Amino acid sequence: MATLAPGTSASPLPEGAPVLGDAEFGRVARIMQDDARIHLTEVKKTLVHSRLSRRLRLHGLASFKAYLDLVESNTEERRQMVTALTTNHTHFFREDHHFDHLREHLLPRLKSDPNRSPVRIWSSACSSGEEVYTIAMCLLGDDRSKAQWMNGRDVKLLATDLSEPVVNATREALYAESTVAPVPAAYRDLWMRREEGGYRMVEAARALVTARVLNLFHEWPMRMRYDAIFCRNVMIYFDDTAKAELEAKLVNMLKPEGFLYIGHSERLIGPAAEKMVSCGNTIYRLADGR
Ligand SMILES: C[S@@+](CC[C@H](N)C(=O)[O-])C[C@H]1O[C@@H](n2cnc3c(N)ncnc32)[C@H](O)[C@@H]1O
């Protein structure tokens, strides 16, 4: 007889498959909250079961209790568990009105800066890099001559994420053909090169990007302020206290008039909301006199 995955009536488990009981789910949820501020609710039980079952198999463990005992005594497995439970869905030109705004409002400002100040943009939950390379392509332009404004300029894009595998993928910058489909042909032809396995971002785009592992709730080593920060589709995983804390820190990392782009179902709360002016759907500008 098949047993049912906890929290679902639709996913029968093979006979003898480990069951994720409430106590073990509670232990997982506490670790996710403590380590990543990710707020796991009961509706995620099936997902947790499926993703952690792979870790149990890898370690030859027969129960979630044994696995949680391992996690609680082994820092590396704890990190692996947190990584396994992150959701890394992303794509090129996701929520493309943000990139229209970047091209129409931020880019002209950067190009016309008489002081030629350093340009800094941060993709703060970058996943596998599609977001940061979309930003890179928008800065480089859809015609080689449009990239000339960068000559002699200090332009750097920071891409960070909690999950090491996706940060490595950002560094690799190799994307399957299906992944590249949303990229307009003019950008793709200029800034991506066909290779076995898909398309790789060309050196001119890769050289702009520094990819690092960074937990948004750990100390941030960056000293520079940012012209724009993308923090999209990650705050949905946090509770309101964590969101307010993070947003306040993000606002403090912006240059005057800097832009903050957040995900379509996210909103600004707490002190950050008072310092930012809305300038489009999920787009905010740091108000004068923060
Ligand atoms: C759904 S993806 C969003 C990717 C991209 N920003 C986008 O909108 O397409 C969310 C990312 O947030 C990362 N993440 C989750 N919690 C995090 C934390 N506490 N610190 C840093 N990154 C985190 C995950 O690893 C995942 O790659």
TrEMBL record:
GO biological process: methylation
Name of the protein in its database record: Chemotaxis protein methyltransferase
SMART domains: MeTrc
Highest taxon in the source lineage: Bacteria
Keywords, ordered alphabetically: Methyltransferase, S-adenosyl-L-methionine, Transferase
EC number: 2.1.1.80
One function term, GO molecular function aspect: protein-glutamate O-methyltransferase activity
Database matches in PROSITE patterns: CHER
Keyword Methyltransferase listed: yes
Binding residue positions for S-adenosyl-L-methionine: 88, 90, 94, 131, 161, 215-216, 232-233
